[in-house]
Amino acid sequence: MIEHRSLVNTAAAYRREYRLDRFPVRLLQLASFSFDVFVGDIARTLYNGGTMVICPKDDRIDPARLHGWIRDCGITVFESTPALIVPFMDYVAEHGLDMSSMELLITSSDSCSVGDYRLLQERYGSQFRIINSYGVTEAAIDSSYYDEPLALLPEKGSVPVGKARLNARFYIVDTHLNPVPVGVLGELCIGGPGVARGYLNRPELNAEKFADSPFVAGERLYRTGDLARWMPDGNVDFIGRIDHQAKIRGYRIEIGEVESQILKIEAVREAVVTIREDESGQKALCAYFTAARGGELPASELRSLLARELPGYMIPSYFVQLEQLPLTPNGKIDRKALPAPEGSASGGSDYLAPRTPLEAKLTEIWQAVLGPVTIGVKDNFFDLGGHSLRATMLVSKIHKELNVDFPLRDVFRCSTVEEMAQAIARMEKGSYAAIPVAETREYYPLSSAQKRLFIQHQLEGAQQLYNMPEIMRLEGPVEPDRLEAALQQLIARHEALRTSFEMVHGEVVQRVHPQVKFEMEYCSAVEEETAELVQGFVRPFDLETAPLLRTGLARLQPDVHILLFDMHHIISDGVSMSILVDEFARLYAGEELAPLRIQYKDYAAWQQSDVYKERKREQEAYWLQSLSGDLPVVDLPTDFERPATRSFDGAHHEFEIDAVLAKRLHELAAASHSTLYMVLMSAYNVLLSKYSGQEDIIVGTPVAGRTHADLEPVLGMFVNTLAIRSYPAGSKTFWSYLEEVKETTLAAFEHQDYPFEELVERLKIKRDVSRNPVFDTIFDMQNIEEKEARFDRLSMTPYMLDDLEEAKFDLTLFMSEVEGGLTGGFHYSSKLFKPAMIQTMAQDLMRVLSQISEDPQIQLSRIECTRQSAASQKNSIDSIEFAF
Predict the structure, then answer these.
(1) Which of its termini does the chain have fewer beta carbons within 10 Å around, N or C?
(2) What are the residues whose beta carbons fall under 8 Å from the beta carbon of 696, sequence distance 6 or more?
(3) Is the distance from CB of 754 to CB of 616 less than 8 angstroms?
């Protein structure tokens, strides 16, 4: 509902801002009667005593007839979309037609490319005024326009939407309505007298789209859903719709950002990017474009130019050249009418395709790891979205498919299909040994990881420490019987969900039950009770009673439910949870799943085999060498004396790294031929060195532990922890130190199968009940490949609640990539640290990251922190587990 005063405000502002009192207003009316622009046309003409000339529908797309209306009626104001105006004005220029009556030309309702706008200004800017306007119906049609001198126009991309005018106020905010800095992406919100009262009889939509302003008392804001950023000159740069975000292969991608980069290519005139799905349901980016000068524009050329500005995962998999982009009746680009791309995601016929059977096979393996992304033989694995976890998966698949034991470090050295094929061709072939199916027994041995968890579960205060809750919000018609049936199918499919643990002859064993009793818990609640509901749902498991899984369904509204999962870590890990949710959704939809060849108990039995024990012996020597001599204890300054025995009481502090700094860190990783994980790990070690005053540091880091290809679809606990030792001496440059961390990390990952608890025993470390063995601090780069589960007629989104406050270690740094930036958090022991200390530590981590990204050659001793070397100010098997 637009109030009368809001429209009057817009009309009065049009007169002032568009200078409609300086010439007779004769406006050519093109918009549909149902479009808000039609109301704006009335406000611009009748409010100013002008004339509105209604153009027949068929004449709008005929440039000759359209010009006839302008000429014959002496039109002074012409507003439409760039898709209509630009080709029309090209026609006018080509035929030398008279436009002498024109006073004001307005491009609106869709983004306009800088190239088109510049050409309009160069041709006609001296004859009449040209502006690019922006607005939304919910803020009374228009709120801003761009009207800067041509010299200030950006070089490439889309024309900015300008500064807030027409009595409007602009705010660019994050999801919590906090303002974001210049250059950082956020949601554009509009305030001022033009903002509508709301949607009639739509209270839920009003709550979602309108908010009380935290900036001006009594002001009402409209959340546009548009992604934008402040420019240094105060103008607003429109990027695209927030709902045009895509999550592809774990990366959140703003397709407006991709469109903007394509439009910066001089040879491109128009561009639009969409999300397409292949036959298997995998998402991929598809770019549609028109050429600025006609003719064929090779896709490989576009890919090459985009690769200079975008990471590989943001480069479209498909490129489709069109003579012109399809339009809606209102002159906007019609995304629904864009044709489906032909062929596979090859990025164009002239990309460098595999030339040999080995290159073709490697491309196929890469595709399985990276997803539906364009892969030419000269493309870099890490530019296409590869990271350490994916590299481990790649090595495992190469071993299985090609019978070659390809070293993990060689993925970094030979990071293209071409280089990898050449290296593999020189290697000796071995034989791939599948994990055998164990003979049927009454019970089975535990894996190394399960032993660790079983012992930890017995410690005082740790009974809930390894619960793995997963909470999701379901919107749409829920069928509880189908949900429960899907869960029963999952339990029947995965033996881990039918496994219990007990002592037999003084040894812990696991027993796989043919059937278990399982019932879903049901209740009703209101939104405000959800946090309390979850707290009550997460409770200790009895490891002797299967299943070590519980689920619940809470009804909040008729079509809104909360789905609750809780599992014990001894039968699951982070990858397993991703598998579980994906398969649960597919079973709910009635899909049949391929049978599993092996189960977790087969893996546990395999760990007892001679083959596996030989593998462990080969890796043991590396770890004993790496951790030889006196092991350092990172002695951080604490606010409290260390308790005599470990406490699991914890708290957490979260922070964000903006997109600008995140991009610089990505560039540093690429320049050093490392990964973002290695850069962040190095920076964290520097921070610890500054706080402790030590130059010998050991930090724990979790690994997925699925180094054998047979384990990919199996539910269970596979996580291992690596003790990464490094030496951040002040005399080193960050660049040289990063190279050391890279080599150390690669070596550790190549020997990641050696169980940490056995390493503790071999090192003969003196037990200290107040500490963890080997290290007290963890770095965890969370990069689990989460699949987007889709339920039949249901939307499912994670339900964000504060983490259960716990601390498995003194200090844990979590980092993850999200929406173009990085998010992080410290989980810490509240018996050691106060919140103020951790907040300072987070700020210092930001300082370290900023300094190393600006000058990678900086000497470590010159890196500045708030607390410089604070060492002088300091007053059976333990756990290594994470949600990995």
Answers:
(1) N
(2) 632, 725, 727
(3) yes
Maximum average pLDDT range among 417-431, 597-611, 648-662: 597-611
**Taking the mean position of all CA atoms in its chain, how far away is CA 709?**
26
CA distance 159 to 152: 11
Residue 42, C-beta contacts closer than 8 angstroms, at least 6 positions apart: 52
Q: In what order do the strands lie in the sheet with 697-703?
A: 650-657, 821-829, 811-818, 777-781, 697-703, 720-726
Distance CA 218, CA 238 (A): 27
- H/E stretch holding 45 reads helix 36-45
How many residues are listed for the chain in this entry?
Answer: 884
How many Å is the maximal CA-CA distance in the chain? 102
Contacts of residue 354, defined as CB under 8 A and 6 or more positions apart, other chains included, come to 360, 362, 363, 377, 417
Question: Which residue matches tokens 């900086």?
Answer: 858
User: Nearest to residue 21, comparing CAs of 32, 12, 31, 30?
Assistant: 12
Helices (H) and strands (E) in the chain, counts: 23, 31
Q: Where do we find the tokens 């069109």? A: 322
DSSP state at residue 283: E
Q: How far apart are CA 745 and CA 730, in angstroms?
A: 20
| 780 contacts 701 by C-beta, under 8 angstroms | yes
Residue 492: partners with Cβ closer than 8 Å, 6 or more residues away: none
Beta-carbon neighbour count of residue 645 at 10 Å? 11
- Evaluate if residue 247 carries a pLDDT over 70: no
- Identify the H or E element spanning 556: strand 549-557
Higher pLDDT, 282 or 10: 10
Quote the CA–CA distance of 67 and 50 in Å, as a whole number.
Answer: 20
Cβ neighbours of residue 572 closer than 8 Å, sequence gap 6 or more: 468, 496, 580, 715, 716, 717
How many whole angstroms separate alpha carbon 684 and alpha carbon 662?
15
What is residue 850's predicted lDDT score, i.e. its pLDDT?
93
> 684 and 839 in contact (C-beta within 8 Å)?
no
CB 170 within 8 A of CB 190: yes
Sheet containing 318-321: give its strands across.
Answer: 268-277, 283-291, 318-321
What is the model's pTM?
Answer: 0.60
* DSSP codes of every residue in 96-111: T---TT--EEEE-SS-
For the record, the structure tokens of 258 come out as 């991709």
Residue pLDDT, tens place only, 757-773: 889 888 888 777 778 88
| 444-472 pLDDT, tens digit each | 999 988 998 888 887 766 778 888 888 88
Choose among 353, 470, 509: nearest CA to 418: 353
Q: Rounded to whole angstroms, what are the CA distances from 73 to 29, 56, 76?
A: 12, 14, 9
Cis preceding-peptide flag for 835 (omega within 30 of 0): no
Is it the case that residue 36 has pLDDT exceeding 90?
no
> What is the C-alpha R_g of the chain?
31
Nearest to 418 by CA among 381, 455, 383, 387: 381
CA pair distance 286, 248, nearest whole angstrom? 12
Sequence-distant (≥ 6) Cβ neighbours of residue 775 within 8 angstroms: 634, 698, 699, 700, 723, 809
292 class by beta-carbon count within 10 Å (0-12 exposed, 13-18 middle, 19+ buried): middle
3-state secondary structure of 478: coil
Candidates 58, 50, 114; CA nearest to 82 is 114
Task: Tell me the C-alpha to C-alpha distance, in Å, between residue 234 and each of 161, 162, 174.
Answer: 11, 8, 18
- For the record, the structure tokens of 426 come out as 């020189």
Helix spans in 218-319 (H):
255-263, 299-307
* Cβ contacts of 168 within 8 Å, gap of 6 or more: 139, 143, 144, 190, 191, 192, 194
Give yes or no for a cis peptide into 311 (omega within 30° of 0). Answer: no
Q: What's the CA gap between 95 and 85, in Å, rounded?
A: 15
